[in-house]
Hints:
Strand content of chain A: 25-35%
Radius of gyration of chain A: 17 Å
Number of strands of chain B: 12
CATH architecture of chain B: 3-Layer(aba) Sandwich
Largest sheet of chain B: 9 strands, mixed
Largest sheet of chain A: 10 strands, mixed
Helix content of chain B: 10-25%
Oligomer: heterodimer
Distance between the termini of chain B: 31 Å
CATH superfamily of chain A: Glutaconate Coenzyme A-transferase
Number of domains of chain A: 1
CATH architecture of chain A: 3-Layer(aba) Sandwich
Number of strands of chain A: 17
Helix content of chain A: 10-25%
Radius of gyration of chain B: 18 Å
CATH topology of chain A: Glutaconate Coenzyme A-transferase
Strand content of chain B: 25-35%
CATH class of chain A: Alpha Beta
CATH class of chain B: Alpha Beta
Number of domains of chain B: 1
Largest interface: A-B, 41 and 48 residues
Structural class of chain A: alpha/beta
CATH superfamily of chain B: Glutaconate Coenzyme A-transferase
Shape of chain A: globular
Order of helices and strands of chain B: EHEHEHEHEHEEEEEHEE
Number of helices of chain B: 6
Strand order of the largest sheet of chain A: 4-3-2-1-5-10-14-15-16-17
Number of helices of chain A: 4
Amino acid sequence: xxxxxxxxxxxxxxxxxxxxxxxxxxxxxxxxxxxxxxxxxxxxxxxxxxxxxxxxxxxxxxxxxxxxxxxxxxxxxxxxxxxxxxxxxxxxxxxxxxxxxxxxxxxxxxxxxxxxxxxxxxxxxxxxxxxxxxxxxxxxxxxxxxxxxxxxxxxxxxxxxxxxxxxxxxxxxxxxxxxxxxxxxxxxxxxxxxxxxxxxxxxxxxxxxxxxxxxxx
Amino acid sequence: xxxxxxxxxxxxxxxxxxxxxxxxxxxxxxxxxxxxxxxxxxxxxxxxxxxxxxxxxxxxxxxxxxxxxxxxxxxxxxxxxxxxxxxxxxxxxxxxxxxxxxxxxxxxxxxxxxxxxxxxxxxxxxxxxxxxxxxxxxxxxxxxxxxxxxxxxxxxxxxxxxxxxxxxxxxxxxxxxxxxxxxxxxxxxxxxxxxxxxxxxxxxxxxxxxxxxxxxxxxxxx
Lengths: 217, 222
């Protein structure tokens, strides 16, 4: 797979199990549905009010009554349901979402996450991110390994946090990294990158898993 | 029994300086005709409580562009650059709240609750100045109820008594906001007879609604 973002989305898809309730963040995470392994069906939760969201509607089939959490045209699957915002976030905080997949500005070795504000530069607001990462059973960060060469996987986040100690797994075009009590464990590497190269692009010290394996292409 | 009025009559009920909840999410489920009427009315110094700042030229953005908003209480403003610009220029005060906390604070405001405990925001700047409460060994933030002087919501089908059925993803915050303001006005996309929405399918009950704004009546185009 040549495209970096597709490659990340495809690897994230491997983490999902049949029947999982999954919330996909705006951008790269929405591509994950295109790479689900054969036989794996997930229930997509969209925090603005869909349990069981469908694929992007075909051109001409969009309706202003049906949007996703990015405000983009959405659809619903058979068996899906619409809910109001208080219910939707009850689903999130109540632990009924199996996995949330979202991007990050910074992640650190304690699993802290920063992804909603760069003071003085960008203020998007946290939207539903703070609730999602606290409430979902598994938090997967899907992002490019660096920001134009500058490390995003740090010893300690410098930007204001979205949440403390919530990240479980970091998936980038270079590597798959697990957040453990001891620090960040490198469990898979893209064969295009050596372990040394991955470490050089990462500020936090990586623990090399004894079972380190190449990411399946 | 809710009274049926025009959207401009609805807008006239919003006075300068009021706090106003507006339902919807990124334009979907906003009461667009009432927002347009509120722009025509030009009520000033409003505190707008809405999930987001809309898209440029769409939804709540129109009130911001028209300089009617003193303060915006929202969860996400990234889709409307003007919000950030006005905030940096000191023309608009913005308070950001995590979306689940935003919904639940409004729910508490309408449900007679004194607040609620949530793990969301712990260890972040959202927690600043808030009480941390430990329950069974786990920390939570105490979040307080949120109410407003008025709530402007939308319903796809509204019966003449004010019962509401929502279409698709338009429910969003409309459902909780209907319960949490002193004056509640629903913009009706379709007004139907009482009984046309089956009792089992009424999502917001008529007792919460003061006025039904009918965009098909007295619509004045600027």
